[in-house]
Structure formats: structure tokens, C-alpha cells
């Protein structure tokens, strides 16, 4: 199995974790680690690779190109949805730049 996850940076202070809740995706604050969850589900040989740099580049490009095509996107999704999506991207970029959000690629196998 392989998947990516956006997570808080390990070792954050409580105030920084609260900030993560504001800038990260809705389920960013999990109670345990993905490594632990995978182990509980019977997966072994778990490898986690930090892919935050690529995530940041993708976020920036997604924001920039969506902004560049704003009129066309607004015509499809509406002004409110457009603004909400762009704000989520701004927040995620701010979280990565502040060092509180990271993206990981997990690879594991079962059995």
C-alpha cells in the first residue's frame, strides 16, 4: 500500500498544533501516528518519506494557476467556492512555510 498524508510537524507546542488545525486539511490532527495506525492494521515494513518540498511546489503552482484562470474557475464553481478554495491553499502554504505542516509518502506491506 502507498499513500500520502498531510500531518503536523512532530514535536509542535500546543499553540502550534492549534495553528495546524487552522491551516491544515480537516482531518490533519490525528490522535496517533500513521505509522502506528498501519502497524495496528497489520502492515509491516513501513517506510515514510518526507515529500513536503514537492507538496509546497504543487500548492504554490495550484494557487498561482487557479488565480491566473480565476474568471473561468469562477464561472464553473462560483465566486464563493473559488475564494474558499484559494483561501485553503493560502492557509496550507502558510502552514508549510511556518514549518507546522508536512506531507509524507507512506509505503507499507501486509503479510
Structure, briefly:
By secondary structure, the chain is an alpha+beta fold. The protein contains 5 helices and 3 strands; from the N terminus they run βααβαααβ. 55% of the residues lie in helices and 23% in strands.
Rg for CA atoms:
16 Å
The count of domains is 1
Share of helical residues = 40-55%
Helix/strand-derived class?
Answer: alpha+beta
Question: Which spans have pLDDT < 50 for at least 5 consecutive residues?
Answer: none
Topology order in helix (H) and strand (E) letters: EHHEHHHE
Walkthrough of the structure:
The protein is α+β, with helices and mostly antiparallel strands. The protein has a single domain, classed as Vaccinia Virus protein VP39 (Rossmann fold), CATH 3.40.50.150. Helix content is 55%, strand content 23%. Strands 1-3-2 form a three-stranded antiparallel sheet, with helices on both faces. Helix 4 packs across helix 5. The longest helix is centred in the C-terminal third of the chain and has 19 residues. The N and C termini lie close together (12 Å). The model has no long low-confidence stretch (mean pLDDT 93).
